[in-house]
Design goal:
The complex is a heterodimer of chains A (about 300) and B (about 425).
Chain A: H1 3-9, H2 16-34, E1 38-41, H3 46-58, E2 67-72, H4 78-90, E3 95-99, H5 100-105, H6 122-133, E4 137-139, E5 156-159, E6 187-190, H7 198-208, E7 219-226, E8 229-232, E9 246-252, E10 263-265, H8 271-279, H9 285-289, H10 291-294, H11 299-305
Parallel strand pairs in A: 1-2, 1-4, 2-3, 4-6
Antiparallel strand pairs in A: 5-6, 7-8, 7-9, 9-10
Chain B: E1 10-17, H1 24-34, H2 40-52, H3 68-73, E2 80-85, E3 89-95, H4 102-111, E4 115-121, H5 128-139, E5 144-150, H6 159-173, E6 180-185, H7 209-214, E7 228-230, E8 233-235, E9 247-254, E10 256-258, E11 262-266, E12 270-279, E13 282-284, E14 286-288, E15 292-297, E16 308-311, E17 317-328, E18 340-344, E19 347-353, E20 358-361, E21 366-368, E22 379-392, H8 399-402, E23 403-408, E24 414-420
Parallel strand pairs in B: 1-3, 1-4, 4-5, 5-6
Antiparallel strand pairs in B: 2-3, 7-9, 7-16, 8-9, 9-15, 10-14, 11-12, 11-16, 12-13, 12-15, 17-22, 17-24, 18-19, 18-23, 19-22, 20-21, 20-22, 23-24
Classes of the chains: A alpha/beta (about 300), B alpha+beta (about 425).
Bound molecules: guanosine-5'-diphosphate.
Guanosine-5'-diphosphate binds near residues 61, 151 and 187 of chain B.
Chain lengths: ~300, ~425
């Protein structure tokens, strides 16, 4: 036993971040115990990176029991894909990738516009993957503070055989009792960091030194200013007349579909820098960066009803 | 920011309650806005809405509006969770609607909380609803209650009105088992005594609401009471270096555990000694309530999920039949012959729930004779027969090991919440 072990043993009661961490681990262990084929949805984004980190910790010294599933929109930055593969390998996990491109090729997804955001189409690819691998639970990194429609989301969120979220079939969740019994074909979404805020996530990333895709940190990128947003200059995002890209120091706050994810001006080089920027942030995570959410206040809820989280 | 801003910060889980129109949405909106939990985006969307509605001010109550369906119907029907923080404390607030289904929702919100924020309209005084909310908070074992006496602007900021109301509530709550009762006169709409003080109520010496909430004991404090931990998973990893490792995974629900402690595996009563504790921070000689751990024992005991590790000098009770306070949650009424399951800790056992021996009318707070099946939002006391032994404590002694839910094995619905050996 080392000195630091002894120090940690006589330390004070666990702080709020320690409690959130232990709760996340508790929920992941409940998922492992209650389901036969649970998958961890791993996009390479910061929230799923935190969930993977918790999962690895939860089962030490044993192996993390979850299959990683990535639903690839085909609109990802190459840095994110490279990070995804490295992180999966570092965790010693099996990674399964299913792509919206394939769903389009198979005619399962029909696009109205070849460049349109593919976020809304992920649900079909996801539901097909759930059926193919017979996953009975999908663990995700969604948080209740992200969006109004999520404030009532359960930690164990029930989905019917069509992947649908029916408010009437959500189970009351009392104390720490998470009930995962389901019938064949039904599915549970499990959200271990439900109670974390955006600031908690960055605090934890800084404290645990969790690696992230480089896009999360300040870098030079060609962008155009459109309204109060910065649009990345990229072949998938057509520029309008009179728009001239300029080089700016920016970072991404989410790393989703290229066509609907905008960077923000930043000089933050570390998670601790980002935390300082976040605490002073004037724009909410989705509002600033997700063009397609801005279309309608209720966009998220509609997608949820269709099986996209 | 050496510890990334979290040094010394603790956590409080709060639940709210109030009748419709007492101003709960306004108050929560006010807290979120004034405590800096709202973003510029959210504020500008609210501003735009105000413009559309022809209002001059942002409607604070809209901040917490949830699902579209509810917005259309103008009601809120389920518990929502809100988050805000001060430099000293993070808050997780269960926002419980004051409408129909409030018993079920309030029980759900209170089950995860150690403190309650109860709204009272200064004009209305103590109503039947206030009494109900207070009783449910007490029943669920909430320790600290804060009464927010709202709309003080509508009673001319009257000290007399506040003192009278406070006196009424104090005498009513005397016999309830609260650890602390606090009272704050405020105006959610104007912001007086919410996050900032009030120039209108200089007669009130106490701090504003947010400061009061910071002074309540944290939800997980240093580990009082005998050690309790439900085993989630017993693992035996495969692999050369760890071939003889057997660890019991769980989160410590109560107390403290130290290497060398004698523990009992309940039900069953086998004992062993703790040889190793693994916390999220690595190996440790001790761990305490709130921490997820993996525990190794000196003896190779085959006890997996569904068992409890407990302090051998202060073991839990074991039984195949218990009495409990039940709150019925499901739209379908109780069926004393239905194949129910009791889920307590990590254990699931087949259960028969007898018709209640007594029944609490939540509207009048009168105790009735029972005998009728419990319906949604009913509270009663009933005997439960089990197929197998369970290990438990009385709910008043330990919430985590005295709380359970009843599941209908035909639909998998969670139909009732229960508290063992707990008087209604
Ligand atoms: N004058 C005054 N009105 C208030 C105050 N707090 C809330 N209200 C008003 O009371 C009404 C009901 O408030 P709301 O927050 O929607 O109540 P809820 O049903 O408890 O969520 C609204 O018209 C609010 O503007 C207050 O402190 N003073």
């Amino acid at each position: 036993m080392t000195t630091s072990d002894i120090l940690s043993a006589s330390g004070p009661a666990p702080g709020h971040l320690d409690l959130l961490e232990s709760e996340g681990i508790y929920i992941l262990r409940e998922a492992a115990a209650q389901f036969e084929r649970p998958a961890l949805l791993f996009s390479g984004g910061k929230d799923s990176a935190v969930v993977l980190h918790l999962a690895v910790k939860a089962f030490r010294p044993g192996r993390m029991p979850f299959t990683l599933l990535h639903v690839d929109t085909g609109h990802n930055y190459p840095e994110v894909i490279a990070y995804r593969d490295e992180a999966a390998a570092a965790a010693g996990a099996r990674l399964v990738v299913r792509s919206v491109e394939d769903s389009i090729r198979q005619g399962r997804v029909v696009l109205r516009d070849p460049n349109e955001s593919r976020n809304a189409h992920q649900s079909i690819t996801l539901l097909d993957a759930i059926e193919e691998f017979r996953f009975d639970a999908c663990i995700g990194g969604a948080r209740r503070d992200e969006e109004k429609a999520r404030a009532k989301e359960r930690v164990f969120s029930f989905r019917d055989a069509f992947g649908g979220w029916d408010p009437r079939r959500q189970r009351p969740e009392l104390w720490d009792l998470y009930c995962g019994r389901i019938a064949p074909g039904e599915n549970m979404r499990v959200f271990p960091i439900s109670d974390w805020t955006e600031a908690d996530v960055w605090r934890y990333i800084a404290r645990e030194e969790i690696a992230l895709p480089s896009l999360y940190f300040a870098h030079q990128r060609e962008v155009v200013e459109r309204g109060n947003r910065l649009i990345p200059a990229h072949p998938l995002v057509p520029l309008r007349a009179n728009e001239m890209p300029v080089l700016r120091s920016v970072r991404f706050r989410t790393v989703g579909d290229i066509t609907c994810t905008c960077p923000v001006p930043s000089t933050a080089r570390t998670a601790a820098d980002i935390l300082i920027e976040t605490l002073a942030a004037e724009t909410s995570e989705r509002g600033a960066t997700r063009l397609d959410d801005a279309v309608s206040e209720a966009a998220m809820e509609r997608r949820k009803l269709a099986g996209y989280f | 920011m050496s510890e990334h801003g979290s040094e010394g910060r603790d956590l409080l889980r709060l639940t709210t309650a109030g009748s419709v129109d007492d101003g709960k949405s306004t108050l929560i909106g006010r807290i979120l806005a004034d405590a800096g939990a709202l973003t510029e985006d959210q504020l500008s969307a609210l501003a735009a809405q105000a413009v559309r509605d022809g209002q001059e001010q942002i409607d604070l109550a809209r901040i917490t509006d949830g699902l579209t369906a509810e917005r259309e119907q103008g009601i809120t029907i389920d518990v929502a969770y809100r988050y805000f923080a001060t430099p000293r404390r993070s808050f997780i607030l269960a926002d419980v609607p004051g409408h129909e289904q409030y018993t079920r929702n309030m029980v759900t919100g209170a089950s995860k909380a150690t403190a309650a924020l109860l709204l009272v309209d200064a004009r209305a005084g103590m109503t039947a609803q206030t009494r109900r909310h207070t009783c449910i908070a007490a029943l669920l074992g909430i320790s600290d209650v804060v009464f927010a006496i709202n709309k003080m602007d509508l009673v001319d900021w009257s000290e007399e009105a506040f003192v009278r109301l406070k006196g009424e509530i104090e005498s009513f709550t005397e016999r309830l088992r609260f650890g602390s009762r606090r009272f704050v006169p405020l105006s959610a709409k104007r912001g007086d005594n919410v996050v900032r003080g009030s120039e209108h109520m200089d007669w009130h010496e106490g701090p504003p609401l947010l400061t009061v909430l910071e002074g309540i004991p944290a939800s997980v404090t240093a580990a009082d009471g005998p050690f309790r931990m439900a085993v989630q998973i017993a693992n035996r990893p495969q692999g050369a270096s760890t071939h003889d490792f057997r660890g019991y995974m769980g989160r410590i629900a109560q107390g403290r555990l130290t290497v060398g402690d004698r523990v009992v595996i309940a039900p069953g009563g086998r004992e062993s000694t703790v040889t190793e504790i693994l916390t999220p921070q690595g190996p440790a000689i001790a761990a305490m309530a709130g921490q997820s751990v993996t525990v190794s024992l000196a003896d190779d005991i085959d006890a997996g999920r569904g068992f409890m590790l407990a302090d051998a000098t202060s073991p839990p009770s074991e039984a195949r039949e218990v009495t409990a306070a039940l709150c019925w949650l499901d739209p379908a009424p109780q069926d004393s012959r239905a194949p129910y399951l009791m889920r307590i800790g990590t254990r699931e056992v087949a259960a028969r729930v007898a018709l209640p021996e007594s029944h609490l009318d939540i509207h009048t707070l009168a105790r009735g004779p029972g005998g009728q099946p419990l319906r949604a939002n009913d509270i009663g006391e009933a005997r439960i027969r089990l197929q197998d032994d369970i290990a438990y404590d009385a709910y008043a002694a330990c919430r985590a090991t005295g709380a359970f839910v009843i599941i209908d094995s035909r639909t998998n619905a969670t139909v009732a919440a229960g508290m063992i050996e707990h008087r209604v």
